[in-house]
């Protein structure tokens, strides 16, 4: 604290508030606020637009954890240098949090200009970062807000830019979003949907439907895949392609998945014991080392034999944290649970995953199956997958079989199992029992 003479009195004066980020030398969050407020005051009488932007480094925390905070600091300093070198003249670059940077852009007046700059900055940050003995690659997501359309005050502008950034992060890595009223409404709807889904999980209103998986050689049912279904009183039917990613993004996919697994396992107890239950795991579950213990606890409590459970994982989910995923897969298989690689053929390194992981089954993506009758390339790809899996002693399931011609082709190619609307649409537990009672005498007798 400083002391200053004022007449005969000594007045205590606080030190000036720092405006500089000590690590990068850029301005900090206070500096950002000061610049935005100054610019807004200058243009208050004639509100000429200007833009603020946020950039968030995708996947910075795992890099920081892997290589250490010193390496993380080096990357942040290099990011600061690149951003400062690339923004337009008169712009201000600040660092507002660990892995987030912000810009004040006085000469960018509208959406197209913001998107163009976003693309330049995205490209600049995609180049490797030099850590001396190694190079590291990152991507960045961007959110922009244009004054005064996205807000008149600093708080409103920053909130709008943050909303745009959040939407970019929802859409994946390296995305660019400029705030608009439509985006604000989209995010509001997502939040309303999230609250409705959380309430539905608590009220046990998310259901499980079951789609048959058949042995293509005999056309007999060998198991069922459990699929989430939700029909809300106000929203109506909500597609799992909407609410499952939302639950994962908002951090409550585990509670949804565990609720559904419990329901599915309880239903499977009524099926003939030779039928298996197939259930999908999310990428979030494959990054949590406690997943295998929680899943095994659920099926043990229900009383389902672990050998009747198959868990489906996608290559994308595995790639989020391969080491943790491998540990989870090993623990589940050691307990008797079988593990399938889902959507095979659409990932970036599927053959490498088959080498590095111990799977029991491969599911051929429906994108190949749907074109098998008209596209020679798809037919040859499926033939190669079937042949490879035979050599690796892996079972094969073809997904999305829609008609007899597809089923016939798959049989001719030696594919062992299949599922799709041709063999049965997903149905609730009661309808599934009726389906089984038509095919199994013991089920029919038990239901009387």
Structural class: alpha/beta
The percent range for helix content is 40-55%
Q: Ranges with pLDDT <50 over ≥5 residues? A: 444-448
Tell me the fraction of residues in β-strands, as a range.
15-25%
| Largest beta-sheet characterization | 8 strands, mixed, barrel
Find the count of extended strands (DSSP E, 2+ residues). 18
Shape: elongated
N- and C-termini, Cα separation: 86 Å
| Overall residue-averaged pLDDT value | 89
Task: Supply database-style keywords.
17 helices; 18 strands
What secondary-structure arrangement, pairings included, does this model have?
Layout: E1 2-6, E2 9-13, H1 29-42, E3 50-58, H2 60-67, H3 69-86, E4 92-97, E5 100-105, H4 111-126, E6 129-130, E7 135-136, E8 139-147, H5 154-171, E9 176-178, H6 181-202, E10 206-215, E11 220-232, E12 236-238, H7 240-249, H8 253-268, E13 276-280, H9 291-302, E14 309-314, H10 315-320, H11 322-334, E15 338-344, H12 350-356, E16 361-364, H13 366-369, H14 376-392, E17 395-398, H15 404-412, E18 417-418, H16 429-437, H17 441-447
Parallel strand pairs: 8-9, 11-13, 13-14, 14-15, 15-16, 16-17, 17-18
Antiparallel strand pairs: 1-2, 3-5, 3-8, 4-5, 6-7, 10-11, 10-18, 11-12
Helix pairs in contact: 2-3, 3-4, 8-9, 9-11, 16-17
């Amino acid at each position: 604290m400083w002391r200053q003479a004022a007449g005969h009195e000594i007045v205590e004066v606080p030190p000036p508030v720092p405006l500089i980020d000590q690590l990068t030398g850029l301005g900090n969050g206070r500096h950002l606020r000061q610049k935005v407020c100054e610019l807004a005051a200058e243009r208050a009488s004639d509100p000429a637009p200007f833009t603020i932007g946020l950039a968030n480094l995708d996947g910075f925390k795992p890099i920081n954890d892997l290589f250490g905070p010193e390496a993380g600091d080096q990357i942040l300093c290099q990011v600061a240098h690149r951003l400062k070198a690339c923004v337009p003249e008169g712009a201000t670059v600040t660092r507002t949090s660990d892995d987030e940077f912000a810009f004040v852009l006085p000469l960018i007046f509208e959406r197209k200009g913001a998107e163009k700059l976003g693309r330049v900055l995205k490209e600049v940050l995609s180049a490797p970062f030099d850590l001396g003995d190694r190079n590291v690659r990152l991507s960045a997501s961007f959110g922009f807000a244009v004054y005064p359309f996205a807000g008149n005050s600093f708080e409103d502008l920053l909130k709008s830019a943050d909303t745009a950034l959040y939407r970019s992060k929802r859409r994946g890595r390296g995305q660019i979003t400029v705030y608009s009223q439509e985006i604000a409404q989209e995010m509001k709807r997502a939040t309303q949907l999230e609250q409705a889904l959380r309430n539905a999980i608590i009220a046990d209103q998310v259901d499980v439907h079951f789609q048959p998986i058949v042995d293509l050689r005999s056309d007999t049912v060998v198991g069922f895949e459990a699929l989430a279904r939700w029909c809300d009183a106000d929203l109506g039917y909500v597609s799992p392609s909407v609410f499952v990613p939302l639950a994962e993004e908002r951090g409550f996919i585990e509670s949804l998945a565990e609720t559904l697994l419990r329901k599915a396992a309880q239903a499977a107890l009524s099926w003939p014991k030779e039928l298996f239950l197939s259930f999908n795991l999310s990428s979030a579950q494959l990054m949590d080392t406690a997943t295998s213990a929680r899943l095994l606890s659920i099926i043990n409590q229900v009383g389902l034999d672990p050998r009747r459970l198959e868990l489906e994982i996608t290559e994308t989910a595995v790639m989020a944290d391969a080491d943790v995923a491998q540990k989870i897969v090993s623990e589940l298989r050691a307990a008797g649970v079988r593990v399938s690689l889902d959507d095979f053929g659409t990932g970036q390194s599927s053959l490498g995953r088959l080498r590095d992981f111990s799977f029991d089954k491969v599911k051929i993506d429906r994108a190949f199956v749907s074109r098998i009758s008209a596209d020679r390339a798809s037919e040859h790809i499926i033939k190669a997958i079937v042949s490879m899996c035979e050599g690796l002693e892996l079972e094969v399931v073809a997904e999305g079989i829609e008609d007899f011609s597809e089923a016939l082709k798959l049989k001719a190619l030696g594919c062992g199992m299949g599922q799709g609307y041709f063999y049965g649409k997903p149905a609730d537990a009661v309808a599934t029992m009726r389906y089984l009672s038509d095919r199994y005498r013991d089920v029919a007798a038990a239901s009387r």
